[in-house]
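re: ur question from earlier - yeah i can do the single chain one, its not a big deal. heres the input i used so u can compare w yours
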Amino acid sequence: MPFLRYGLNSLIVALIGTTARLLFAVLAAFAFAFYDFRFKKTLFLVILATMMLPGDTLLVTNYLTVSRLGLLNSYLGMAITSFVGATQMFMLRQSFLTFPRDLKEAGQIDGCGDLRFLATILLPISKPVLVTLSVQSFVTLWNAYLWPLLVTNSTNMRTIQVGITMITSFEDTNYHLVLAGVTLSLIPAFLLFIVLRRNIHRNMTAGALVG
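and the output i got, formated as tokens:
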């Protein structure tokens, strides 16, 4: 069983999904925090409402869409459904709202455009929040099972969680192999948390001091 290949597939899907999700979340949160446009509150409420929808209710429609796009058995097909996350938008929007608008307007007077303000000022300040959301998103995509199982039928495209279930069979269950696979699958998330724990702790402390 190509267990290393399964790990590589999960890593690629998690990196693609996390990067795209944070990119879209940052842009959407910036718009909701600093722009004024029609139906702003209504659109934000619609986004919040999607957080109450279980992911399983969208499996059929998502599968049909991905199938029609010809993305079955591909990294993009496994990651595309995670490109937009309402939770990340909400958390970043709340973080951006704590930044004074006066400083943004002062930067505009000095010739600082929106993208430059976002890249050089707002994102560095929001680094603890971004790191926390990155870890949460990476772990979620790394541990995904049902969606990768549906959109892949090639052995070389299976993810690590699907690969672990393929170790067992109806005739016999190799518990020692299953536990070894589960242990190996926990290593990347554990190392990621160890490396980024300071930023996560800083974000938790900042949230506790708000108000």
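Confidence is low (pLDDT under 50) at residues 204-211. not sure if urs matches, ping me
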